[in-house]
Amino acid sequence: MQSVRDGHLASDRQRVTVERLDAVLGRAARRHRVPGAQLAVLRDGERMVVQTGVEDQDRGTPMTGESAVPSGSVTKVATATVVMALVADDDLELDQPVGDVLGVAGLDRGLTPRRLLSHTSGLPSDPADPAAGCLREVREAVPVCPAGTAFSYSNLGYALVGAVIEAVTGMTWREAVEAIVLRPSKIEPVYAGHGVSGHGRATGPAGARPVEQVLPPMLEPAGALAFSARDLVELGRIHLGKPGLLDVVTAADMHRAVPEAEPFGLADGWGLGIAHFGSGEDTWLGHDGTADGTSCHLRVDQAGACVVAFTANGAAGTDMWHDVAAELRELGLDLPEQRFGQPGARPVPVPDGHFGTYRNGAIDYTVRRDGAGAALVVDGEVYPGLVLHDDGSFTVRDPATGRATPCGRFRTAAVEIGGRLARRR
Predict the structure, then answer these.
(1) Is the pTM of this model over 0.90?
(2) Are residues 317 and 404 located together in one domain of the fold?
(3) Are residues 254 and 87 in contact, defined by beta-carbon separation less than 8 angstroms?
(4) N or C terminus of the chain: which is more exposed, having fewer CB within 10 Å?
(5) Is 292 in the same domain as 360?
């Protein structure tokens, strides 16, 4: 195992040392059989970085502090920060209909940058035809709810944000995110599938296998970037008030929780492109991201001037992160625990009215009977062992591990799964 120390924590009040981080990461990687992982902690201006394993299991290339891991939806933090920088420079207004910004007719006037960034636009999760144009997809999309009324995670919404960035800046999304966010933060731009040495690892019946990163160009603003944990710390530093990118008022608007955004199962609240974990004075900002066989997590504690970043190149990376976060709490980092459902919720029978098919864009979620119980089917993939609780939340059994996994909740004539709202067909 290798480790890099960029500084030491200035106070003994935290029991965090580079050696302890090294041990935490190594134990968790072995436990979850993740080929390679990175962990970075910034506290009071000083940074510690550790890594373990390999960035490419087939070649045996060691994971280093600079290894870029496809980071999936953590990309949205960078995209949203570009938008807020444009707002700070008076080049864009958060509540302006994006059809006016783009100079096109036929778009719902409820689609504004504020709603797109906070996933309250009502757009479905993904385009029906990833090869089609973004505007065509948005025009033809069937909303999952009226704009501004509910949270529903939308990659299509961020594709539209990318189009807005391009219209305002006259640059491509890549050029804009590099010029406005990445290079000023000394982050070398790396894109999934381009310049990434390693692959993610997926788990199947034959064991772990390498998987290539596949992302339609339309969805690059939603998930194209690859970061090291060190890079993610630098991205997080912007949201500790790093000067030169966002003024105080604009940053506060970005970080403030949007009342309509209730991201059940994903986080405890949502701002403009950044999630809330915990509540009150214990709230951390951040974002989670999964690409093909990878998992990345960013947490920012503004009150404690702390950033924690984690990357992993295995399918079990998210489970590994939860274990790492638990051990970091024992070391004195007050990372909030991720909650799902209400404490003490009890299993109850699935009512007849819950069975059926729900739709979000081109994705169907079907709740069907499965012997004496129930199962969830997502576009043909079966998740057995659906257990409903009396608070409306439910778990399913992970086909790969057999473990009960939090999944979503039922609402009136709708279901929320992974933060996506799907209406009954």
Answers:
(1) yes
(2) no
(3) no
(4) C
(5) no
